[in-house]
Amino acid sequence: METVIVSARAKGEYVQAIYQRYRLAARPDKQRILDEFCAVTGHHRKHAIRVLNAPAPGASRELMSFTSRGSRFARACGVMLTACAVMPALNGCGPGSRVA
Q1: Angle at Cα 4 formed by Cα 3 and Cα 6, nearest 5°?
Q2: Are 35 and 1 in contact, with CB atoms under 8 Å apart?
Q3: 89 falls in which pLDDT band (50, 70, 90)?
Q4: What is the pTM of this model?
Q5: CA distances from 29 to 18, 53, 60 (A)
Q6: Distance (Å, rounded) from C-alpha 42 to C-alpha 38?
Q7: For the residues of 49-84, what is the DSSP string, one character each?
Q8: What would the pLDDT profile of 37-46 be if each residue is shown by its tens digit?
Q9: Domain extents for the chain?
Q10: Which of 46, 57, 70, 76 is deepest in the core (most CB within 10 A)?
Q11: For residues 45 and 34, what is the distance between their CA atoms, to the nearest angstrom?
């Protein structure tokens, strides 16, 4: 197989060009699109799948930033809830404590 050198900008334009076609394609067509993508860009198949299954090229970063920020808050709340559930047991006065 021939090594093809393609610039990063050209790869980005190519992803934009085939993104919707890949999303709307049936499974056999997706396989052909992936083969083509790998041949043109030189990427491995797994990377091609990740690129074509990612949010649309040029999607709003604001929405993605908001969701990641929200997940951080959810994670922090989960840690706090875990601490609230564990601390009484450690102090000997919670549901997990033993009364002698």
Answers
A1: 145
A2: no
A3: low
A4: 0.54
A5: 12, 15, 28
A6: 5
A7: HHHHHSSPTT--HHHHHHHHHHHHHHHHHHHHHHHH
A8: 999 888 999 9
A9: 8-53, 60-100
A10: 57
A11: 7
